[in-house]
Design a protein that fits this description.
The protein is α/β, with parallel strands linked by helices. Helix content is 39%, strand content 11%.
Length: 241
């Protein structure tokens, strides 16, 4: 998706500064702890820093709440989520020191069906993701300079090179992945130590949780995202492309 408005000279200068900041931080924080990385982001960007969460778990949201209580946690309600995912979002909003911000697509599922035909996710999953995930997130992040995600290098081959801090060229934001170096064992240990909320589907055979029509349980030995768009070459929704 392209930028939503022409970029001015002042914005170009600001982008160059943010990009340089991100690249420097990526090098200097590579070996830092996840909490130190999030603390850097919170100290550097203040209210213009947010966390995005698919509500697979609340690990990064919990980390960010320790660094900046009341931090914005952005959630994309695509209209296709499992009930368990919506329940996890509501629980996070109720019990954690965060401000959950729910983004929605421009069209409801019914409106999208009317415009493009039913089950667009089966016929053109890239377009469905663009309409229900990529565009809403790009618009929803407009008020922030930096955003944090739960990406991990061990999740799939496409994520193996994820920097702990990098530059999001598409959205012109600093992108933070504080748990990029973590393994699933690290995540499980943090959840157990801090009593962090997790999506109940993670104990029901799902290793990665997305929209219900495009998410399946995984078999033993498969990587975490093997259950996303099963049977298709697609491995990412486009949020992190």
């Amino acid at each position: 998706m392209t930028n939503l408005h022409p970029v001015s000279a002042a914005e170009t200068d600001r982008d160059a500064e943010l990009r340089a900041l991100a690249e420097q931080a990526g090098r200097e924080l590579e070996d830092a702890s996840a909490l130190e990385i999030v603390q850097w982001a919170a100290d550097t960007f203040g209210a213009r820093f947010c966390v995005t969460s698919s509500m697979e778990d609340a690990v990064v949201a919990h980390l960010a709440s320790r660094a900046r209580p009341g931090v914005d946690v952005v959630f994309l309600d695509t209209g296709y989520h499992f009930p368990e995912t919506i329940g996890t979002r509501d629980a996070v909003a109720a019990v954690m020191d965060v401000n959950v911000v729910t983004l929605t697509p421009r069209q409801s599922v019914a409106e999208q069906d009317a415009a493009y035909g039913p089950k667009l996710h089966d016929r053109n999953p890239d377009l469905c993701c663009a309409l229900r995930k990529v565009r809403p997130l790009t618009e929803g992040l407009a008020g922030y300079d930096a955003w944090a995600t739960g990406l991990r290098r061990d999740e799939s081959p496409t994520r193996a090179g994820t920097p702990v801090v990098g530059w999001d060229e598409k959205r012109r934001k600093v992108k933070i992945a504080p748990i990029a170096r973590w393994t699933q064992d690290d995540v499980d240990a943090y959840v157990a130590e801090h009593g962090v909320l997790t999506n109940p589907l993670l104990t029901d055979g799902y290793a990665s949780v997305g929209c219900a029509p495009c998410t399946r349980r995984v078999a033993a030995g498969q990587h975490a995202r093997a259950g996303r768009w099963a049977g298709l070459a697609k491995t990412e929704c486009g949020l992190h492309a």
